[in-house]
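[Q] Does anyone have a clean C-alpha cell version of this?
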Amino acid sequence: MKSLLIRSGVLIVLSFVAAIITSILSDKGYSLQGASDILFMIALAMLLIGAALHVVQTGFFDGIVYSFKRFIKSSTKHQMIEEDKSELSYKLEYNNPVTYPILIAGGFWTIITILIAVAITNS
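[A] Here you go.
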C-alpha cells in the first residue's frame, strides 16, 4: 500500500512538472488555463494507458489467447478432439506494478483539472 502511494505521488508530481514546463514553453506563455488544459490531456492519457493495462492484467483476453494457442497447436480435427480431453492452460501471468499508480494519478489530475475549469469559468 505504501509503495502504491509513493508511485502514485511520483507520477502526480512528474505530470504536474511536465504540464508546467510545457505551458511555459508554449507560444502563449504561462497561464492557469493553459497549464490546466495540458494537465487534463496528460491525465486522460494516463487514464487510458492505466485502463488498458488493467484490462490486460485482469485476464479479459485470456480466452482469446487460449483459442489461438489451441488453433495453432492443432492442425487437424482429430488432434483438436484429442486435445480437448487434455486442457491447455490459458491463464496469462501478467502483473504490472505501475497499473494502479497510473490510474490513481490520472484520476486525481482529471478531477483536479475539472475543478479548476469550473473555478475559471465561474470567475
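[Q] Thanks! Anything notable?
[A] The helical segments are 2-25, 32-57, 62-73, 77-85, 99-122.
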